[in-house]
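Appendix C reproduces, verbatim, an entry submitted by the partner laboratory led by Prof. M.T., so that reviewers can inspect both the input and the predicted structure.
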Amino acid sequence: MNITIEERTAIPTLMHWRKEVIENVFGVIPSKALLVANRRYYNTHIADGTHIAIVAFIDGADAGCGAICLTDELPSPDNPSGRCAYLMNIYVRREYRRHGIAHAIVRWLVEKAQSLGCDKIYLETTDGAKPVYTEIGFVDLPNIMKYAEIHDR
């Protein structure tokens, strides 16, 4: 099987994949408001280069996707450049899993982030996907917390 990865910038393509990810990873049908917010995000961040989206193909069939959100933070000893790459929207369609596509997507994203000077590359994961990221070299971050008092808007 031949895996290829290509960058994509067409908003309809990105919206199609994002909707599929929300439905299959988060397990919900996205609301119209959420889809509008995602389209607005893509329109801004694809244009300014702070979002890089890819689609993975296996033998020519679209099989998965992934993305990088690029940000800057105050430089620190563990991130001297201050450049951050948050890997997100990593997804492989069920029928194409266990063929190395997730590994190929993540490796491509990591290499791209490194080529852009990112010293901090991170992601969120599910328990099921964690072994993929561990094999590639990701480790758990201690002392990370998330504010949980966010209410539906």
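The radius of gyration is 16 Å. Additional entries are available on request from the coordinating office.
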